[in-house]
User: Fold these one by one.
Assistant:
Number 1:
Amino acid sequence: MPDPAANDVVGTISLLYELALSMGQSLDLDANCDLFIRTLLTRKNLAFGAVWLKASALKNGATAEADSGSYRLVYANPRVRAREDRLPANHPLPARLGNMPFFSVAANEPGFAEAVTENGIQGGAYTVYALGDIGFLKLYSVLRRSAVSPVEVNSLRQVVAKFAVSIEGCLAHRQLARQIEERDRAEGERRTLAMVVEQMEDCVIITDAAGVFRYVNPAFERVTGYAAREVAGLTPRLLKSGRHLPEFYAALWKTVSSGRPWRDRIVNRLKNGSLATFDTIVAPARDEKGRPAGYVAVLRDVTRLMEVEQQYAHAQKMESIGRLAGGIAHDFNNTLTAVLGFGSLLLETTPEDGPDRHAVEQIVLAGERAANLTRQLLTFSRPPMPEMRVMDLNALALNATHLLRRSLGEDVEVVTLLDEHTGSVRADVSLLNQIITNLALNARDAMPRGGRLCLRTAPVELDAAFCAEHAGLAPGPHILLSVRDTGTGMTEEVRRRAFEPFFTTKRTGKGTGLGLSVVYGIVRRLGGCVELDSRPDAGTEVRIWLPRVEARGDTLPVELEEKVVGGRETILVVEDEPMVRDLATRLLRSLGYSVLEVGGGEEALSLLRRYHDRLDLVLSDVVMPRMDGVELTLQLRQERPELQVLYMSGFADDAFAERGLNLDPRRLIRKPFTKETLARKLREILDDRGSGANA
Amino acid sequence: MFLPHASVTEILSAAATLNVSPGDTLMVLVAEHNAPDLDELRNALRQTIPRFFGGIFPAVLSGARAHDEGAVILALPALEPPRVCAVSARAGPSGADLALPTADPCTAVLLADGMSPGISEFLAGVFRQLGPATHCVGGGAGVSAMVQRPCVFTAEGVFDNAAVMAFAPWRCSLGVQHGMKRLVGPIVATRTRQNIIEELNWRPALEVYKAIVERDTGQPLTAENFYDSGRAWAYPFGLVREGAEDVVRDPLAVVDHGIRCAGGVPENTALHVLKGDADHLIAAARRAGERAAAGARSRPRAALICDCVSRRMFLKGRFAEELSAVSAALRPIDHLEPEGMLTIGELSSSGESVLDFYNKTIVVGLLCDA
């Protein structure tokens, strides 16, 4: 007959055995609790089990909750039964455990109601065990009608104590896992930071407190040319350029030594000897304990940026000079029109062997020289409205060099490297010719003992980065036109000012200082960009980029000279400047025309009414007080729609645009004009009347 | 409703007579003999009934009779469409993260692949989430040959290693009994692997078990005759549960020197080898019916019996007596005709205690109005 008591003991031992082995199988707190409490619930036929821990045992650091001594529910099975998940430190449950390590209380006993922190508790009994000093284990049986006997509760005491130790192990593991996670996170941040520093475009230098290099990033190596191993043991003095006074560096050290960051623009010398400008921040670095540990410097190479800024400033300056020159040129033009015109008339009537002949010739010559200067000045500031055609640049370059060969002299070898795929540009033939001529003649002057002039063309595709650094260009297909010589070259100072009008290094009388300025103005007008490279004794290269067009261009731009032809038609001259009006009248009459003259628009309209059908053409100034030439034309055409008009003006084309005037360049003659030019323009218009063309 | 023939057509026409509303769920229990193709049945049901679930079982029960052929269908009001949950074959809880409804009242009818090794862990996870307020009743699906195959279904598909669940806003009164008695024990399952006991008392499990069974029967027990001779399922294991009957685990087969059971056996748990007799088992079935009847507090709508297939094997010709005993116990209540199935393991949360997987047990669930 088996002994029931012995059977009970064996049963209890086997339960304790199972419970003891169910704990500690996982270092995860929830899994550890789950294995232990599920076994308890199943074997002891319990309805609920929960683990409560002190917030302080769960904490990562000091928190208000942890400091308060409160408890948190960390495991409940079934989960849905849990009503509370936090208990204050003074809750009756832990308070009661302060007096005894475990207790059991049934529904009909005092203290039961205070123990209820779950849903749906009706009857039954709680058994509560302290889990060391970190929390407590709470079990609930719905089947019990009375408290669990002390012996039975006591039978689980040791295994619950072991469970508490296993929980401490889980918490320690969790703490360790968090520390590892935190360390990994910090490591990750450090790796990210290092990656950023390694990959950033700015140079980064870290030195020790004595200023000796401890780290330089790849950007430093790339920009300065110094490898990290080369600078080991050295200081940033290695980069000194000699461009700053000792006081500059003293201020730097004074600032960082006082714990403040230093910011300024600094010029350094690179390994290849060239200079580069850096926006620089130097800051003192401190170690984890806040002690000075060295310095960190971040250097941004702004050399190229400064060049772009200088280009922009230069462009602005050229624009201002252009405006000034354009304004002056207009007034000169009126005066020169009179000087040249009257000079020409005087020359016609002065006998070739007369005593005044030489003086008159010199007047006309000086006037022509002045007119040429003024024209160039206008071309630089506001190049004339071009007659745009699609031009094969190679054909034009060949033609131009052919024409220039004699001017260049025999001791200048002309080399043309024209890429057959160069293509065409949309431009005015005369303007392109002027570019090549000006550059070629400059090159010749730079090679007094002869040399080689190389003219090169090539198709290029410009990207956004290139265009960002070259004002005036837009990304896309372009043509590069390069004119390079082997001449004396320029100093940096000369190079910087080369495009300024009237800036010249040639002897007095040898140059006007407008050649490159005119090139600059034309290129800008054509939507391109010009750049000049030169070093003393190393020659000069001027590179021009012009927008490339797909259409096939004309190959032989030729201008034909025409004979001077007069006429018998009646012409009304409208000009507010008496000298010019007088000159125009005389020239027209000398060409055989009948001439009427007035000083303004109102008079012109009045005259028209009187000579309605007798007028063939109106030669009018554009900019006049009260009524400008275009307004006058509009009103004249109300009376005589077929009436022809030729404008004369000393203003540049842009000046018309600023006044809202849209003029056909074919119906415009520029002051100062010659008799021949005036005659040709008049015949072009008068002979074209039959075609119905009108301004 | 019992259908003597479980063709797709008959199930569909019978379902039509139940007037299943769109908010209801149709439960379909199919007996394995002449059973329709479950995928075909599922596709056909999808055409007319949006919510359904079911499984294939060794037999279906109607009143006091077990039918190897036929089907039982039952319309349940539903809190939500039936769920399909994977029952992981790996160790560890697999049902703890399910977002299950927690209504009051709520009864979960649960059909699971009875051959799935992870079923005990799955149910532990479900219980931790649902708690005792939701009563669970159901059983393991499968076929009497005890080979695993897709055996449970919903509109979504036919599955193995899965459980299908329907939640009804009903109360459930449960009776759970088996009637087996302890023969030898306690013995400690010193090494287990889910549903395989590898060691008992630190010795090869088969060696220990064989000695016990052979001593009691006087007949040899080998790996070959382990299941077919009926000796193994006559001597199941009982997992100790304080204040209640042991939870039975039927031995099914020999695996190396271990024993594969119908349901998980926790490592280091104490168990007994049980033995039963027909009278005790039939008496237990009656008690299960009586307890379910006694617990009913409102009008019963259905009586669901989940009776272990191994009980029929054990009781043989007297199995009908067991069903009669249950029917008799329930008859005072609205003359309900109990219906259900023979199961490969039974599922029940038996009142306030944990949801567990049983073998050789009869579960009687009275599904009552809220």
Number 2:
Amino acid sequence: MNNFQKLIQEREDMCPPELEFQVMREASTLGHFGDMVSLFVLNTMATVVHIVTGGEDPKCLRDKRQRLAAEMDERTWRQPQVHIEPLPENHGTRNWAVPQP
Amino acid sequence: MVSSAKKISELSDSEVIARFRLAQEQAYFTILYRRYAPKVFAKCYSMLSDEGMARDATQEIFIKILMNLTKFNEQSSFSTWLYSITYNFCIDIIRKKKKLQLLFTEDVSRIRNDADEDISDSVLLEMKQERLSTILDLLPPGDKAILLMKYIDDLQIKDIAESLNKTESAIKMQIMRAKIKAQSLHDDLYGKDSIADTDL
């Protein structure tokens, strides 16, 4: 090993061990931030763009909507919740005849 | 558990990167960090001549690496790519800190007339460590980067040229100029006595 390499080796040994913790903590924070962006921000921005510009739904929203629709049981919301009595036959008609004295 | 950890640590850089791309697990990034952090720190310290700045630079470089690891195209080895980012990052810091500082030695007027003659590598490799440290601090950042790439990282001229975005002939010329500059600084500071580390 020549003197130049020895000098650099000495400097390598000076690398503080606590630096690893700092780097990994920052990396972890960035990872969480990335997850948050991919979960929320993209869809939110796409929705804003969609509202402003109009047109077809963005693909991310279309896919999500299709997925939700497939999961939903149609009968649970399309059938009436309460029973309604049928209207009487003369409902909506009016007797215009003048009552006899 | 121990055996699996051992296996992971035995993986090559390319394998670690491939696994990181697949799993996006921080453990793989930690392996790369442990392999290269001391080397990156030493380069930053040599380039910036300040321990605190070297720490900050090392941290920022590794975060930069993390964010760009998926873009690494393996045209060169991971270490060459990492060192290239390290040197350019340090050069940018120095540029911002000291505006318009000379990046490479261009003052050929002080350089001897026999500039075409190749200076021996012993000018640097056999110099006393404390003198070498002082002279490195005085060299322009570009020269420092080139000398570290050539004598510490053992990079080819082609790789150095790619890293610093220069031609191969320019790099060859710059290495020679840097060596002449180092010898000139040594002579100015310590006289023309032997460069070799004979008294140790």
